[in-house]
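lol ok so funny story. i was supposed to be doing the assay writeup but got distracted and ended up predicting the structure for this chain instead. priorities right. anyway since i did it might as well share w the group, maybe its usefull for someone
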Amino acid sequence: MTHFLHTQGDLEAGLLELIRIDPRLAPVAETAGAFNLRRREGGYPGLCAIVCGQQLSTASAAAIRDRLFKAFDPFHHDAVVTARSDKLKRLGLSNAKIKAIKEIGKAVSTGAIDLNAVGEMDADAAHQLLTALHGVGPWTADIYLLFCLGHADAFPAGDLAVQEAARIALNLRKRPDPKALTKIAESWRPWRGVAAHLMWAYYHVVKRREGISLEAKADKAEKTAKAKKHGPQIKKAKKPRTSAKKAAKKTAKGKQRAPRRTKS
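and the output, tada:
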């Protein structure tokens, strides 16, 4: 049976069931405190909005999404499929994302997929069907199922914040990768989506206490990785600076010297 998170009451009831399944999450929920259900628009617009936000900051993703929806009002897959790529590129979309939203639009147009009906399916089957679409990876598929369709068992194991929260909450030695986290979450079925909401809420509370976000750590790690990839950079040798004291002494010494006289 597929469960849904359409209301705040659904989320709260699901949390009680989740804690009953895994009592280890009771103190996690206590630390997280009250948290709200997060939902987005579904269908083609909803999936395209998530694709727009892939690997971008929240602000950048929102700006591109707003420009895209404003350029196509109403936002319909047929209009996007037939739009010129240069028009889409001017909105801030990369070539990869342009191809993704066009290919998704074609799949919707031909009836190859019903983006609303997948919400009625088992989470794994729906995940597999969505990831078969061009440009839709595991994280995008799970975020769509969870936020746009309210699927209670969708679980974005590739989300860094969920991974980090699980590491702290479950006292793990290192942050679990998607495969390891999927295995851990197996016992949370059919409420894995509730567990994801809990982990996000817990993550924000814990990181506020520590004063540093996972995004900041990720940015630092990315910069380090890029530096290693491109190899060591050769810096120009800096000329030794003369201290103010030495410079003053040198000037005074120069003044003491008598100027040379030129013979007439």
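DSSP finds 14 helices and no strands in the chain. Residues 192-210 form the longest helix (19 residues).
back to the writeup now i swear
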